[in-house]
């Protein structure tokens, strides 16, 4: 945080230097860590007791990860909604720099990732990693709009660096409802489901009407993802003992996003209704994967990350009804440009590297997982990739860290952008830009400016009180947007 604040105050930081690696400096297969990234869907910071002691939901699994590692208190998703956050995590690039400027893809949307673009998976694969994605993809499949489900679903996950894929195409409330194995549906899409109302309206759990495979069961999705993830850890660890190859396992879960359909062992277990039960199931699923890493004998050499794609979809009426704040007091909710939309939990365990029960309050973004994981795996990327990604390895090691970025940029569901620079947050227009009303306010008096140190709840708009600050921050946002990157090319490691 202090680095961004110094930049915003006009004070110079030491130049970031890049050390050219010789072949002898490149990590060997034995020293490269295995990497597990678990990305929950719509999990708020306030849902985890390790982040929010007042949470009404037991989360012993994620609390254990935090106790053994580091939790970040000022971490943000690349966007306040699903698809662009996933794009940013895998590419180290803000999604709005590409063709998708707002909202998300559908279940039958074509592939979003540009052909030839480096991803976290492709770069680690090139360094000898086994790679697998298991869960919710939500980055499009195939090259037709809509997708032809009778043809191979390419390009898809196995075309952007993953050796294996098992999961669903998009959110669990978007048809078609079918599991995909690599590039084909696991079962024929010969059935359909009717629309279901949200739990808030007394329904079985919100989902859209549409095509489905025979006997598709919404409650089965989380258990099937977890079982496959556990199996993959065991298989990859066993193979790694034989040939020395590390692995990357990316598990983008479908929960606690709608539909709220906790499995029977978790139903009725919390004081926060179906949502709280579903969060508890996410926690138990994280715990199972963490245990698999232990059982496979690779815990000591595994970088284990747990995070979320955006804030919780938890409006004020839910806070009042259940006495639980999934976004821990931050203003707004999922999709909003306010902090509740993009403040996320981020937990990192890495034995021998990350100190147990440690905390960082530096401002970081999910885009940073790209540079962090690729660097940890001994990889590199050229100046055309990872445009918005910084290696936070020094933070994990609790070493001095100079963030080369001037600022981090936030995005709402409808494409509204904000710039975070030190204590200041500038939002280009009025309104939430997301689910909270009003979404947009047409007002000639400008946008929003908040001092997050003095006013973390974003209650007092200072736009008219600090015209000089508004002009400076707006010029910074315009320049970073037009330049195509927030991270100087010199930040990328050399081969």
Give an overview in words:
The chain has 495 residues and is an alpha/beta fold. It has 2 domains: 33-396, Alkaline Phosphatase, subunit A (3-Layer(aba) Sandwich); 408-491, 2-Layer Sandwich (Arylsulfatase, C-terminal domain), CATH 3.30.1120. It is built from 11 helices and 18 strands. It has helices at 2-8, 60-68, 82-91, 120-126, 221-243, 273-295, 316-322, 339-342, 368-376, 393-396, 467-483; strands at 34-41, 70-72, 75-76, 130-136, 164-168, 180-181, 184-185, 191-193, 210-212, 247-256, 302-308, 346-349, 358-360, 364-365, 408-411, 417-421, 424-427, 448-451. The protein has a 10-stranded mixed sheet with strand order 7-6-5-4-10-1-11-12-2-13, sandwiched between helices. It has a 4-stranded antiparallel sheet with strand order 15-16-17-18. A hairpin with a 2-residue loop joins strand 6 and strand 7 (184-185). The chain is globular, with a radius of gyration of 21 Å. 55% of the residues are buried.
What characteristics describe this protein?
495 residues; alpha/beta; Alkaline Phosphatase, subunit A; Arylsulfatase, C-terminal domain; 2 domains; ten-stranded mixed β-sheet; four-stranded antiparallel β-sheet; 11 helices; globular; disordered N terminus
């Amino acid at each position: 945080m202090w680095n961004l604040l110094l930049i915003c105050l006009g004070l110079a930081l030491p130049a970031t230097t890049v050390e050219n690696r010789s072949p002898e400096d490149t990590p060997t297969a034995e020293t490269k860590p295995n990497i597990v990234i678990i990305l929950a869907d719509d999990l708020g910071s306030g849902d985890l007791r390790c982040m929010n002691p007042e949470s009404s939901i037991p989360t012993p699994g994620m609390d254990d990860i935090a106790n053994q590692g580091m939790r970040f208190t000022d971490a943000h998703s690349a966007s306040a909604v699903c698809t662009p956050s996933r794009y940013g995590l895998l590419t180290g690039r803000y999604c709005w720099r590409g063709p998708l400027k707002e909202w998300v893809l559908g279940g039958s949307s074509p592939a979003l990732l540009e052909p030839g673009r480096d991803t976290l998976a492709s770069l680690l694969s090139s360094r000898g990693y086994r790679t697998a994605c298991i869960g919710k993809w939500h980055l499009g499949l195939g090259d037709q709009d809509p997708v032809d489900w009778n043809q191979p679903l390419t390009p898809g996950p196995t075309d952007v660096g993953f050796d294996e894929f098992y999961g669903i195409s998009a959110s669990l409330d978007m048809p078609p409802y079918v599991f995909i194995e690599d590039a084909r549906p696991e079962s024929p899409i010969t059935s359909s489901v009717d629309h279901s109302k949200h739990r808030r309206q007394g329904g079985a759990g919100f989902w859209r009407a549409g095509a489905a495979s025979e006997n598709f069961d919404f409650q089965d999705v989380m258990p099937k993802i977890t079982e496959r993830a556990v199996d993959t850890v065991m298989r990859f660890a066993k193979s790694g003992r034989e040939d020395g190859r590390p692995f990357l396992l990316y598990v983008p879960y479908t929960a606690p996003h709608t539909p709220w359909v906790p499995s029977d062992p978790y139903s009725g277990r919390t004081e926060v209704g179906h949502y709280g039960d579903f969060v508890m199931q996410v926690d138990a699923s994280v715990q199972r994967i963490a245990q698999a890493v232990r059982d496979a004998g690779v815990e000591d050499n595994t970088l284990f990350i747990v995070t979320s794609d955006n804030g919780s979809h938890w409006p004020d009426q839910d806070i009042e009804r259940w006495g639980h704040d999934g976004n821990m007091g931050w203003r707004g909710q999922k999709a909003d440009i306010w902090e509740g939309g993009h403040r996320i939990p981020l937990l990192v365990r890495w034995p021998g590297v990350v100190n147990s029960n440690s905390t960082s309050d530096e401002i970081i973004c999910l885009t940073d997982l790209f540079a962090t994981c690729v660097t940890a795996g001994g990889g590199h990327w050229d100046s055309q990739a990872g445009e918005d990604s910084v290696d936070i390895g020094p933070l994990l090691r609790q070493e001095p860290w100079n963030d080369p970025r001037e600022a981090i940029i936030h995005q709402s569901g409808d494409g509204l952008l904000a710039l975070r620079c030190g204590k200041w947050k500038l939002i280009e227009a009025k309104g939430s830009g997301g689910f909270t009303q009003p979404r947009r306010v047409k007002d000639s008096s400008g946008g929003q400016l908040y001092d997050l140190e003095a006013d973390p709840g974003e209650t007092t708009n200072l736009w008219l009180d600090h015209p000089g600050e508004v002009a400076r921050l707006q010029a910074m946002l315009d320049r970073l947007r037009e330049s195509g990157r927030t991270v100087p090319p010199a930040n990328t490691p050399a081969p």
